[in-house]
Inverse folding.
């Protein structure tokens, strides 16, 4: 049981790391687009105008940051086996998969999907689409690997959550036995101060014996 749980956590971290690498790649590519666009422009426009012009780069950066945060959450959930962290991870992964499915469906069903997007003055979105079209087979396999890793990590997170935090025990009998032993051989901490009455008893006995001998020496009237 414990070996299966460790194996699942190892696979979970591996698939989760793939999503983290994808997120970091998106952040780096988005920052590179902004850097190139700033070098091509002579003057820096206002913030809102600059963001609207480089919407593709900021979309990549925000998506990459979100994926990196979810990756960190997944690694923390795998190490701690916390049910709340695993639930948050699964909800985040389901949101990502739904968004990816919605975008894929819009691209496949809507032939004019590019018209729904704002204009990209940087031209990097067109360059990206040309690269995907020219290397469609490679990009297709990359997308399949990413989506498969996301789906498998979600399923493994569900299995780990159902398995519970008591996966460090080899069996239910082992968990029950260790729980009983911990109760049977519970070492209670002694109180900070335990009065010793033995000294007082000896002292009282000696004093009583001295008084008795003293009274015996008095002459009787």
């Amino acid at each position: 049981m414990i070996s299966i749980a460790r194996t699942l956590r190892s696979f979970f971290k591996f698939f989760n790391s793939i999503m983290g690498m994808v997120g970091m790649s998106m952040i780096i590519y988005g920052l590179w687009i902004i850097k190139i666009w700033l070098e091509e422009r002579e003057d820096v426009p206002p913030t809102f105008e600059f963001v609207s012009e480089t919407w593709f780069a900021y979309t990549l950066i925000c998506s990459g940051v979100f994926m990196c945060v979810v990756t960190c959450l997944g690694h923390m959930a795998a190490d701690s086996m916390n049910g709340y962290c695993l639930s948050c991870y699964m909800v985040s992964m389901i949101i990502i998969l739904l968004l990816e499915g919605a975008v894929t469906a819009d691209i496949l069903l809507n032939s004019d999907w590019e018209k729904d997007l704002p204009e990209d003055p940087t031209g990097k979105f067109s360059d990206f689409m040309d690269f995907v079209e020219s290397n469609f087979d490679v990009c297709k396999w990359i997308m399949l690997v990413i989506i498969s890793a996301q789906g498998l990590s979600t399923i493994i997170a569900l299995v780990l959550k159902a398995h519970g935090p008591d996966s460090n025990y080899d069996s239910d009998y082992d968990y029950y036995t260790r729980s009983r032993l911990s109760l049977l051989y519970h070492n209670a901490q002694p109180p900070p101060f335990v009065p010793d009455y033995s000294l007082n008893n000896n002292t009282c006995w000696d004093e009583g014996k001295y008084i008795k001998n003293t009274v015996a020496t008095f002459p009787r009237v």
Remarks:
- Helices lie at 2-40, 47-53, 55-80, 83-109, 124-134, 136-163, 172-184, 197-217.
- Confidence is low (pLDDT under 50) at residues 166-186.
- The chain is about 80% helix and 0% strand.
